[in-house]
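The data are quoted verbatim for completeness:
=====
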Amino acid sequence: MLASGIIPPDAVVGGFMPMRGEIDILPLLHALAARGQALALPETLPLGQPLVFRAWIPGTKMLPGRFRTTYPDAVEIVPDFLLIPLLGFDARGHRLGYGGGYYDRTLAALPGAFRLGCAYAMQEVATLPVEATDLPLHAVATETGIKKF
């Protein structure tokens, strides 16, 4: 994905720590850190709130968070490029999340951020239900390449 040029070198990239079988983006995050990319990882706040992103570089102390997540012990920063985990995606760029609405609220709070879903190719489905407030992804990166919408 790094070689594709889809991630601008001056972007503040909001990533995630993979869990529950999600595609492992840690090698990408380490490569981005090595090129000096500004990176952030999310903190999951109480239900009903968007995610908060905190600065991260490899080796940053991680704190325990909600739902068995961890987040950096660091200052809050606002990403303008989001790497988004998902359970499924369709040909129109719609995503299926875990049902808590955290990324829905986060995307609504950061409407100008580039939205790149990170998934396995087998997670693509024909169609997903869409609500009027859903913001589609700009692209999805899988192990087989990048699909832009």
